[in-house]
Design goal:
The structure holds two protein chains of two kinds. By secondary structure, chain A is α/β, with parallel strands linked by helices. Helices cover 28% and strands 25% of the residues of chain A. Chain A is built from six helices and eleven strands. In chain A, the strands form two sheets. In chain A, strands 9-8-7-10-6-1-4-5-11 form a nine-stranded mixed β-sheet, with helices on both faces. The N and C termini of chain A lie far apart (56 Å). In chain B, 55% of the residues lie in helices and 4% in strands. In chain B, the strands form two sheets. Chain B has a four-stranded parallel β-sheet with strand order 2-1-3-4. Chain B has a four-stranded parallel β-sheet with strand order 6-5-7-8, with helices on both faces. In chain B, helix 25 links the parallel strand 5 and strand 6. Chain B is elongated. Chain B starts with 15 loop residues before the first helix and ends with a helix. The chains are: A alpha/beta, B mainly alpha. At the A-B interface, helix 5 of A face helix 17 and helix 18 of B.
Amino acid sequence: MKILVCIKQVPDMESKFKLNPAGTWYSDQDLAWRMNEYDEFAVEQAVQLKEQTGGELVVLSLGPAQVREALKKALAMGADRAVHLQDEASYEKDPFAIASAIAAYARDENFDAIFTGMQSQDRGSAQVGLMLAELLGINAVSTIVDFSCDGNSVTAKRELEGGLKAVVKTNLPALFTCQLGLNTPRYPTLPNIMKAKKKEIATPALTAPASLTATLSVAYPEKKGQGLVLEGDVGELADQLLSILKEKTTVLK
Amino acid sequence: MELTREIYWNVGHGVLLPMYLLVLAAFGILGWGFWQRIKVYRQGQKLDRRDDLVGRIAAALRQVVTQHQVMRVAGAGSAHGLFFFAFVLLTIGTTLVFIQADLLEPLLGVKFLIGNFYLLFSLVLDLAGLVAIVMLLGLLVRRYLVRPEGLPTVWDNALMQGLLLAILMTGFVVEGARIAVTELGTPLAAWSPVGLVLARALAGIDEASLRSLHSGSWWLHFALVLGFFVAIPFTRFRHLLTTSANYVFADRRPKGSLVTLDLEDESAESFGTATLADLSWKDILDSDACTYCKRCQDRCPAFATDKPLSPMQLVNQIQVVAFTHPEASLPATVTSDVLWSCTTCRACQEICPATIEHVPKIIDMRRNLVLMEGEFPGEEVQKAIDNTEVNGNPLGIGYASRGDWAAELGVPSLAEDAEVDLLYFVGCYASFDKRNIKVARAFVQLSQAAGLKVGILGKEEKCCGEPMRKLGNEYLYQMLAAENIELINGYGVKQIVTSCPHCFQTLSNDYRDLGLEVPVQHYTVFLDQLLGSGQLRITAEQFDCTYHDSCYLGRYNDLFAPPRNLIRAAGGTLTEMAKSGLESFCCGAGGGRILAEEKLGSRISEKRATMAAETGAPVLVSNCPFCLTMFEDGVKGAGVEEQLAPKDLAELLAERI
């Protein structure tokens, strides 16, 4: 079986974020970097699938030179080789451009299963995985909290609102985006950390179309008045809400 | 009458040949028995403990002869010590008989067991025999009637005590029978008082029967002694040699020293201790040197709070594995729960009369669990490790704010200004934890009051790596250490002071293996010196307190006086806890356990907080951020927070500048 896991390196969420000089994204000064937490679940699940079925696991990341550290961690967790789509200003690409770049690489590789994180902790658009599946023409199951594979058939559970889980079955090839609760990512053993230093990190050419969206500006949320909690029966609440929207906002004209 | 006795009276010189042949045979079996055991020790890794071999042997002899470590604990310790001295005297006595009877007299016609010397000889040996019997009986009562809890008794013990008592008693029977025939009614007999009592009891019996009794007892006594020699390697008697050998090969490095693994070694297939072959020969000898005295178990804070760890049992398990199934997995045999419960407080090693090294074995098994299995005591610990890898501190707070606590204190980071009098290595808790930031500020205020310029590494500082190292993550520890050392050396730092005993131990000892040579002090020593020289002045203000000797300042570094000097200088009236100094009871955070949840048994911190509250003092003074953190929780959990306030020594001093 040939498996792909796509990861992103993001800043640690405990960092103090400042805006970059252009005001279009966060500044990369004084940040600690790490593999996106949701991607850790993806890597762990991909490694488990590889251990179950044999075969090859490729880890891929799009980003500047420093994302090699995240790739090395994935290699230490059990990926066989890495692909680095190098882009020093990857933050300027939107999810469509990123998904297209990955699809350009993956199209001819015929992966049976692709894992990604549900969303990234910095941008949080939750689109790259699903767009990638669409561009490759394969099924996608998002927000999985359970995964089992029997031959070519996968049964996954998706997390819905209110604690509900949806059971979804699909055949491979398919793509899965991973949510908290799917598994506990393993801590790499020292022999695996050492082996990872020798595993291949390839840097094929990156081909991507232009982004469909552009980030015009980024700003801290304004500190405004407090939130308001409405109480009463649903009909009254709807009326109250409607009048607030009409009088206090410009949402309804 | 002549002041001597006829050696080999009644049994005749004919006994010589069979006696020595049998003794030779017994020693042969003894040697063979030990050779079988040495072969097992040799299954362990090489370890060179032959440095200063003469000094080691001299020290070992001193330890054996004085029984110092054995007698440190009164009761059974005193009894064993006295028994040992008595037995040594008896052995010397027998040796003197051998020297005269088999060497000096037949070859040179020289006799020295005569006259006043013989009288002294007789008296001393009789009293020695009596003391030996009384001590043995006392120990017998302790083991079988009093039955102290946790004392492991096996058939060995009955055999040993029975054999020794029989040897001593038959010895007196031989003497009594001889005196009854040859000395009764003479002044000589009084110099063998115990023998005389026996002789009087036997007085009515005819000479022929007494002579039969004498020679029969003589052979029985001899057979029992042969039995003793033969039993040594096969019973707990082996400690006569194994414990003595353990003294010779004891760890002479500074306390708490660990092996710095070569992680780059490509030929290494495994790290840490998985099976017996991963232990050193000394570790296996340790397990054979244990005398099952349970002093370590009695002092273990984990054992005292119903966790499954007993240092003695762990060492015993190694012995069982070594001699019955050496291929077994040691971490699995000992079990993870046991291994993770250790706080590395060193109480076990400090008190062990056999100088066994318990803690490094535990850490080495942890290394196997972490480095080879990726196992931790809990998810919260794995998270803390992850935090340290990402942000350089287990609390997971952004590294860029590490120096923020010092804002407005006039403390530059070395990156801004490296011309400082001392580098204050702050540590993770004093940098990020609200309660401990107060300690960091206090230390800075005190240093500045002494006219010193303090610098910190600020956001460049990373965790010293100690909790990770003690948990077994040698790889992360070495990475953190390398980064810190490169920075410190790069800035040309001349002096380092820490407010955390764990940072202190790690920078002053562990980091020596990785290239740090700068002198390091804990703040209590540093401030004590400043006060002593008058460079720092404080105004004493009376307060009542009790003081907790932290494990890493106390047992690890023997720093008991400087903090007490500081307390006195501050105006403190100190009421010591029963368990203080070397016997101090751990707060529970060592061994990396500050990062872990305490899920088994009861809380160590609450137990210690209760001990502190029992002194009646309103303030519990400590010198360590881990202790302070544990006690803040501990006093609440123990329900004593109204009557006992945990404070760090630095805070008390800073209030008195």
